[in-house]
Amino acid sequence: MFWPLAVIAAFLIGSIPFGYLLGKANGIDLRTVGSKNIGATNLGRMLGSRWFFVCFLLDMAKGFVPAFIAGHRAGLIGELAVPPGQAAWWLAVLVAAVLGHMFTPWLGFKGGKGVATGLGALLGIFPALALPGIGSLVVFLMVLALWRYVSAASIAAALALPLWTWYAHAQFRNLREQDLIARSGPGQREADAVTLVVPYMGWPFVAVAAVMGLLVVYKHRPNIERLFNRTEPRLGDRAHRTPDEAFPGVAPETPEKPPQSGGAQSTPTPPKD
User: Phi, psi at residue 138, to the nearest 5°?
Assistant: First the structure.
């Protein structure tokens, strides 16, 4: 019963809407302002960069904690060649945490885009997905530094994730093959024999990385449209907030009209007898 309970716990932890709660604590409902997303980016645009980092780290933690604890409990931390059955359950914990963030039941099954929670969950599956996650993070930072679009950087990192995952596991298999060949006799170096002994290619991790990447891209559909229309805000831009968004429940003051100057002055009409 450990793995099913771990999956359920991961979904519930991932569903905690930290961005929405931090916004509410500051008098803002993120669902009604800015991009109307409850993630760290929208929170940072409305309240400042400090709140972006606070929310990003909290969203990362709710992906990292369930994935790392589940892997540690199962004795998988530090193992790259994970047996397929355990790999499937471990990956289910990762996916549950991300889906909890994307479709939180506490907000009508609407949530964030899953970038921070997904990164945290990747780092929690160490090293099978932590190493590819670091590679995707490098892609994210490079794209962000070049163009200052958080959405474009997130999409690029999501698309790079399955490629990094395939590369990491393929290199691991090559190292095992070379080690086996070095310790084998001349008659045992046929490729088929090596493949039988070293069959692992990490395909479960590659498949889940691809699904996660596509989910992140799918959740960024409005951002993609704004990028094409050149209306997507860059990193550091503060969203314009109307007075009722900045101070909910407080009606803005209506300025008095200035007296007319120049021109014909209207004269009062005398009362009729």
Answer: -60, -45
